[in-house]
Design brief:
Blueprint (H helix, E strand, L loop, with lengths): L1 H15 L1 H51 L2 H14 L3 H33 L5 H10 L2 H17 L3 H22 L10 H26 L2 H4 L7 H32 L2 H14 L4 H19 L3 H37 L7 H16 L3 H7 L3 H26 L1 H27 L19
Length: about 450
């Protein structure tokens, strides 16, 4: 009973924070809207069209990593630290420099891949190549969206940062897909599905620009920008590698299924992958809310505050995750049938992926704790090692077991990676961030 009372008190305290509550609501809306969008696209464009759509989106996510140049994580930490230290000139300079670098990197990445794609994928169906080329238009939009979201998080506007992707983009996509009902003569192809997604991404990007412009405090607007470009680039480099390997672990399995088995199976597997991600969305919500606070506490050398913050976050994650696990376990078979009979075979890989996500959740905020305390290099190495393990495992298991093999490889890699980061956080910071350490007392920890 005392433990239960403590957990309930913690979650009430966490959710009384506007950022945490708003993030929980918006991430829930985003998760639900992604499933609804997937359902609508699958119904409108059938399994083959949805398979092309899923494959292109997976590639766009991969290419968005180098396009963002690592600034989509660096900004969260650095802007939060600059706010804590009133370094407004540096904040303005960092925002200016990040926009320029992301624009250049996006054009280089998208243009280079667009030139090479027809040659590299010469044997692929023409529809897939065309859809891929259209999907490349989303790369700058995705990259800028990530950087804009990171800037708003660092500024303390955690909820506003998520509005374009959580509300604007799915609403536009569903509206465009629904409009096809009034145009029965239009062919329902994967190319059209990707085009609709690109238009919705453009709408979200436009909304994000407006929100960021209105959210900048006068202290930044009026400051003369100061630049530390070399320092920022050196700090951003590990984030590029880290995020790249993260996307490898979340998207490469879908890509490999598409190459080794086919686009239809890639669509079925992506549905299972998206559904399993619901398990970790409470952890994502809490991470987004606490990340700027972790960076500020570390900047003030408040290690006791760090331990208290991550312990309370772990308790909140525990109570928010349990209902999601129960609901998904009960509703998954029904939800898969809604997509069509082809998608019912996503259930076994879904169960395997959920097991991996449960281990990931159990490790708490260990990953974000390391990132916000300037250990991104170590995290990048960990991600690299387990991304390689995931890809190698998928290459071996997919030919043998199909989409179930992809799920086994990804789930195992996620579980081992999360555990490794929890161990590193304990050794480097002296802080226990997992769900298995909820009774640890807040105490001073050694400085890094």
């Amino acid at each position: 009973m005392p433990m239960r009372t403590t957990l309930l008190a913690t979650i009430r305290s966490q959710l009384s924070n506007q950022d945490a509550l708003g993030t929980l609501i918006l991430r829930g809306v985003l998760a639900a809207s992604e499933l609804v969008c997937a359902l609508v696209i699958a119904r409108v464009f059938k399994a083959s069209g949805y398979g092309v759509y899923a494959l292109v989106l997976a590639w766009a996510g991969l290419l968005g990593i180098p396009a963002a140049a690592g600034f989509d994580r660096l900004l969260i930490r650095e802007i939060a630290v600059q706010r804590a230290r009133d370094e407004w000139a540096l904040a303005r300079g960092l925002l200016n420099r990040s926009r320029t670098l992301v624009l250049v990197c996006s054009l280089v990445v998208a243009g280079g891949v667009a030139t090479l794609a027809p040659r590299v994928a010469a044997g692929a169906p023409r529809e897939t190549i065309t859809a891929f080329q259209i999907g490349l238009l989303t790369v700058p939009l995705i990259a800028y969206g990530r950087v804009r979201q990171a800037a708003l998080q660092g500024l303390g506007r955690v909820v506003a940062a998520q509005i374009p992707e959580a509300l604007v983009q799915p609403l536009v996509l569903l509206t465009l897909a629904g409009a096809l009902h009034f145009a029965p003569e239009v062919a329902r192809t994967g190319v059209l599905a990707v085009t609709l997604y690109t238009l919705s991404a453009a709408a979200a990007c436009t909304a994000g620009i407006v929100i960021l412009s209105k959210s900048l405090p006068d202290s930044i607007r009026t400051a003369t920008p100061a630049y530390r470009t070399g320092e920022w680039l050196r700090s951003a480099a590990p984030f590029v590698a880290l995020l790249g390997f993260n996307v490898v672990m979340t998207s490469a399995d879908t890509v490999l299924v598409g190459f080794l088995v086919g686009a239809t199976d890639a669509g079925v597997y992506r549905l299972a992958s998206q559904a399993a991600m619901l398990i970790s969305f409470p952890l994502t919500c809490v991470n987004m809310a606490v990340a700027p606070r972790l960076a500020a506490l570390y900047a003030r050398s408040d290690n006791v505050g760090l331990q208290s913050e991550v312990r309370d976050a772990a308790r909140t994650v525990l109570l928010l995750t349990l209902p999601v696990v129960v609901a998904l376990g009960l509703a998954a078979p029904f939800l898969l049938r809604l997509f069509g009979p082809e998608f019912e075979r996503a259930y076994p890989p879904l169960l395997v992926l959920c097991a991996g996500q449960l281990v990931n959740v159990a490790m708490g905020t260990s990953g974000y704790l390391l990132l916000m305390t300037r250990h991104e290099g170590n995290v990048a190495v960990i991600f690299a090692a387990f991304a390689v393990l995931d890809v190698l495992g998928a290459l071996v298991l997919i030919p043998a077991w199909g989409i179930l093999g992809a799920a086994v490889s990804t789930a195992l890699s996620f579980a081992l990676m999360s555990g490794t980061m929890a161990i590193l956080a304990r050794r480097r910071l002296g802080i226990r961030a997992t769900l298995f350490a909820l009774n640890t007392r807040a105490r001073e920890t050694r400085n890094v």
